[in-house]
């Protein structure tokens, strides 16, 4: 039948790859948009977490380096941290607030964000090639 002929010619591979790319794109979207981008925790939470043994590991900072305080949420900001006006949190290694993800891109989700953008680029280029 026609389906067997299409399978022999390899024409069924393209729809399968398309479905896998779309599925991968959707999963990456939810993963990046729902994960913690590296919010800076208030001092009280870090101390409580450290006592329980589940806290965030904070590198020891020499005494001559002063940490700045955020003017909005008043937490001590490590270097390269910035306060996001939309999320109302300080984010470590803040890159930007992505309006499509409705989440900040920071220390923890930056690599997955790059993978997500790469998958989107592949889908866009492939769609452009097919439509051309």
From TrEMBL:
Single GO cellular component term: endoplasmic reticulum
Pfam families: DHHC
Catalysed reactions, as listed in the record: L-cysteinyl-[protein] + hexadecanoyl-CoA = S-hexadecanoyl-L-cysteinyl-[protein] + CoA
Membrane topology according to the record: Multi-pass membrane protein
Magnesium recorded as keyword: no
Residue ranges of the TM segments: 12-32, 113-131
Main location: membrane
One BP annotation, GO: protein targeting to membrane
Taxonomic superkingdom: Eukaryota
Palmitoyltransferase DHHC domain ranges (all copies): 68-126
EC number: 2.3.1.225
Subcellular location field: Endomembrane system
Alphabetized UniProt keyword annotations: Acyltransferase, Lipoprotein, Membrane, Palmitate, Transferase, Transmembrane, Transmembrane helix
GO molecular function: protein-cysteine S-palmitoyltransferase activity
Key word Acyltransferase present: yes
Domain remark text: The DHHC domain is required for palmitoyltransferase activity.
Family membership noted in the UniProt record: Belongs to the DHHC palmitoyltransferase family.
Name of the protein this chain belongs to: Palmitoyltransferase
Protein source organism: Lanius ludovicianus (Loggerhead shrike)
């Amino acid at each position: 039948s026609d389906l067997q002929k299409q399978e022999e010619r390899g024409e069924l591979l393209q729809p399968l790859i398309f479905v896998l790319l779309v599925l991968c794109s959707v999963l990456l979207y939810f993963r990046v948009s729902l994960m913690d981008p590296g919010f800076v925790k208030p001092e009280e939470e870090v101390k409580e977490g450290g006592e329980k043994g589940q806290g965030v590991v904070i590198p020891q900072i020499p005494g001559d380096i002063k940490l700045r305080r955020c003017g909005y949420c008043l937490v001590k900001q490590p270097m390269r941290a910035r306060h996001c006006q939309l999320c109302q949190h300080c984010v470590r290694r803040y890159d930007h607030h992505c309006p499509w993800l409705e989440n900040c891109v920071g220390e923890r989700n930056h690599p997955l964000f790059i993978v997500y953008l790469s998958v989107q680029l592949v889908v866009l280029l492939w769609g452009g090639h097919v439509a051309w």
